[in-house]
Amino acid sequence: MTKKLSLQSIILLLISCAMLATFIGVTYVTLIESKENNQKNILTENAVYSEKLAGTTDLLFQNMINTLEVSAANIYSNLDDPDLVVELNQLLKSSNFFNAIYLVDKEGYIVKSTPKLILEGTKVTTMGVKEAIFKKYTTISQPYRSQVTGKNVVLVSVPVYNKTNGEYFGFLGGTIHLNEINSLQDTLSLHPSHSNGSYVYVVDSKGQIIYHPESERIGDTVIENKVVAKVTKGHAGKEKVINTKGIKMLAGYAPVKTSEWGIISQTPEKSIMTPALNSVKDIIKYTVPIFIIIYLLSFLLLRKIFSPLRKLTKYAKDVATNQKTPTPVINNNSLEISELKRTIFKLVTHYNMQILNFEKEVQFDHLTGLLNRRSFNKMTSNLDTYSMVLFDIDHFKKVNDTYGHLMGDEVLKFIANIVLDEIKDKGHCFRFGGEEFLLVLPETSVEEAYRISEKLRTRVQLSISPVNSTITISLGVGGVPYSNAYKTEALDQIDKALYIAKNEGRNRTIIAESKQ
Hints:
Elements: H1 7-13, H2 18-73, H3 84-95, E1 100-105, E2 110-114, H4 127-135, E3 139-140, E4 144-145, E5 152-161, E6 168-177, H5 183-188, E7 199-203, E8 209-211, H6 226-231, E9 237-242, E10 248-256, E11 261-268, H7 273-320, H8 335-363, E12 371-372, H9 373-380, E13 386-393, H10 396-403, H11 405-423, E14 428-433, E15 436-442, H12 446-462, E16 473-480, H13 487-503, E17 509-511
Parallel strand pairs: 12-14, 16-17
Antiparallel strand pairs: 1-2, 1-6, 3-5, 4-5, 5-6, 7-8, 7-11, 9-10, 10-11, 13-15, 13-16, 14-15
Helix pairs in contact: 2-7, 7-8, 10-11, 11-12
């Protein structure tokens, strides 16, 4: 006799498949940890870079101020020197700090300018000029549109005084065009080195973008960005943020103290997945060969186990969906599967018998053997034209009260037997409830249904009942679509006809009124 293996022994062999779960777990942990580490590193890099760039920008502005102060120290005494414009032009070209340099008096008139000499004598009333004249000390303006060039500019200015009497003359200023090449643009256009998608942008104290790698963004106000809101208040730091376009970013930010600007260096959060996925690829590279070997071994074992189980599953499914299917032949050395097979076959046989009995009980009235009301809807759902006869036993309550309920049941059986014998293959009879019955006569006219009803009524009246007294019935006749196109409404009309039959003295047949 062949020894049967236990299912437990087979499962022990399949423990090796747990390596797959281990692989998934290690891969997941590696992915999450790598993602978190990359996020921390990028946030730190962006914070360090923004602080470094802010410091560089501060130093750049300080150098601009120093350069202007050196030139402004003696400029008042050289106002009439014809070479003054040449000196200013050399200053402009030597440093690459500014796009234009102006000497403006305290009334706002341009005294000297380079490179556009024709501007001399022009009065300027822009925000930056007014601020410099009003404050009378070194200023770095917020961005504004130049009256002279119509471009977005920043004005760096230092005051000019008469050394003899200390009287304020005006200021020497350099303008930086935000959309043109200059040392500020060169400094801000440097990018962090840590990943693709990173970029830097600069905002003024009101949250307006004054530098952005996408030039069309310059001038946009983004103060609702929480990082921008913090950096404009002088704070530095790092955090995750959703930018104004709804993109998740890892941002570092730092203020430029000399100008009250803010520098934000940020990287799309999705970029952290690239190195994380590279780590996962390394894991896959070294573990997949081992996984394949284990998989093949597991496959051979699983096939041995699941071949009979699949047959049992299909058999159970076919039985559950009322499909006729032969009992499968299952050969297996597993003790557990053999027992499972025997139990399933036994249960299927048992429940098939139960289902047959249940279906019979659901469809038929146990007392009379007639179809019940539940069967009515199912049987008529596929009929288009049919007649219906609704009837009940006259004075049935009196029968129950006089002879008892057991004899009342015999009267119901008596009526059912007469109906079945009378209609035979013409239609179906349903016990509709209590002493109420319903005939359904497919493809039968109402006139023919009336004749059948009258014949049935007469036979009941003339037959000897179980109580040895005359039993009569009242009937209502109608049909679909004669009484109504809808079954429920037609049945309602027939019920009204039955009610009329009873009111008119019982033991009669009334045809329902047609609504067509």
